[in-house]
Amino acid sequence: MDILVIGGAGYIGSHVARYCADRGIHVDVLDNLSTGTRDNLFPDYGFFEEDILNYQALLRVMKRGYSAVVHLAAAKAAGESMLKPEKYSVQNLTGTINILNAACEAGIPRIVFSSSAAIYGEPKYLPIDEEHPKEPENFYGFTKLEIERLLGWYDRLKGLKYAALRYFNAAGYDPEGRVCGLERNPANLLPVIMEVAVGLRPQIDVFGTDYPTPDGSGVRDYIHVTDLADAHYRALLALVDGKDSFSVNLGSERGLSVLEMIDAARRITGKPIPARITGRRPGDPATLIASSTRAKSLLGWEARYSDPETLIATSWHAYSKKYRHAQ
Hints:
alpha/beta, Rossmann fold, 10 helices, 39% helix, globular
């Protein structure tokens, strides 16, 4: 199998690319390196430094011929999306339309799409399954939901088969320590905690401690990036084997609060990690916890690395390796 991993120099994409290559799939990566890094590229990959907004360049690469495309190129900060919807419209919607059109023109029959639990919005019930109402509370989630709708139409009209993988909160790093290129300007909780631990930030802001949760801080379902990579690999195999298009949640099925993650990180890193309580951010639900039953039944997938100790320890290894003074 030959695949093109779009966004494969980024945080999640680099883990997906390495995991698939380790299992005998030929991997090419396309990335504009705006948030990804060359540190995440390996000698056994082909690499194309291109932008998904450049349709002709995208098409030229896709015409090399691939069994499938894995699409992970997106702006992904929920808070920023509420301030800069124009950025998310262009990057996520226009960029994805270019990918879909180029894939169809190049004759690529399959796509695995990096979707998000943000499509669901405030939970009506927990855990959240795939039939949960889809009412995103931030513009980022809106773009992911619109892309899933586009995928449905492209399947119906063009025969492009897809797997939409609805991530909950991705975290952690390669347990083998090979993929360790760090995110630039991260917005997600655990990398921000790590930046405080290594001294890049003076403190972490906790956005609200007045939620209806056990300690008042937001509760999320954290899924290790290696578990996500395994799900992409299994989704590719399922599509190649002829399975119809599908959408599945990917989560650990357990919730951890912001304050719990900070306390665990203090324990594992041995660093003080100062925290400042601030107000809630618009569009942030109190609790998000997944049901991954469908992924288990369709793909034989389950989370194996998503306990808090592994999430934090693998992250700390990557950060302390780069910032050795922090050890």
